[in-house]
Inverse folding.
């Protein structure tokens, strides 16, 4: 495994609360597994908040397109995969989205129909 080991200091009260919570919810796994998942969820939540920000600005001009921010552990994976098969991480992400939409014709049709509905609703047609 490529995982790194870290130490964490928490108070006795926090540790007791954690253990009681895990005892009530054994599906959450061990202390380590639970804490690792909380970190991952926090990183994902922060990345999602970045996606929902207003238009990205580069060189004083709005960026045309969709800006996707990934937590560092996902970005490293995307970069590594993109280097092996694609010209850039952006090209790899576009391919993933295209494959997902093309994999299920109905899903792609539903997405297009929703986009058309939103676009026509916004201009009042």
């Amino acid at each position: 495994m490529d995982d790194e080991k870290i130490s964490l200091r928490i108070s006795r009260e926090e540790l007791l609360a954690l253990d009681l919570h895990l005892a009530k919810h054994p599906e959450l796994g061990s202390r380590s597994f639970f804490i690792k998942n909380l970190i991952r969820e926090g990183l994902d939540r922060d990345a999602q908040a970045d996606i929902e920000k207003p238009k990205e600005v580069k060189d004083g001009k709005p960026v045309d397109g969709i800006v996707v921010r990934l937590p560092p552990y996902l970005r490293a994976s995307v970069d590594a995969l993109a280097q092996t098969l694609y010209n850039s991480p952006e090209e790899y992400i576009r391919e993933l989205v295209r494959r997902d939409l093309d994999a299920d014709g109905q899903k792609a049709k539903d997405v297009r129909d929703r986009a058309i509905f939103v676009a026509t609703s916004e201009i009042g047609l």
Q: What stands out?
A: The first strand starts at residue 57 and ends at 58. The longest helix spans residues 31-51. DSSP finds five helices and two strands in the chain.
